Amino acid sequence: DCVKWMDIESNRMAQEEFDAGKKPAVVAALFAGAGIFLNRYFLRGGRKLGVPGLFLCVNLGMLRFITAVKLRELTLGAAKVPV
User: Fold this and answer.
1) 39 is in which domain, residue-wise?
2) Closest by alpha carbon to 60, among 16, 20, 27?
């Protein structure tokens, strides 16, 4: 019974982590989309950002994503420590 309970508990925790992991992924996708949009806007405006500009925007989006994941790990880690 104890083993079964542990299994259920670990599955529940894995599901919670998965659910929490979805949000940063959505944020990263939004930033990447915004980067592509800005790139097109600048190209239309006559200022050539071009490929470097696109990479810059996408990299900024990925940096935000990584930061969000690290912050989540830190906050979850802090929450799991028993007081």
Assistant:
1) 22-77
2) 27
83 pLDDT tier (thresholds 50, 70, 90): very low
Residues 56-70 pLDDT 10s: 666 676 777 777 777
As a whole number of angstroms, the distance between CA 30 and CA 65 comes to 10
Is 55 inside any structural domain? yes
CB 49 within 8 A of CB 43: yes
Q: Would you say 67 and 41 are in contact if contact means Cβ atoms under 8 Å apart?
A: no
Q: Is residue 66 part of a domain?
A: yes
DSSP state of 81: S
Separation in Å, CA 45 to CA 34, 48, 60: 16, 8, 22
Q: Classify residue 8: in a domain, yes or no.
A: no
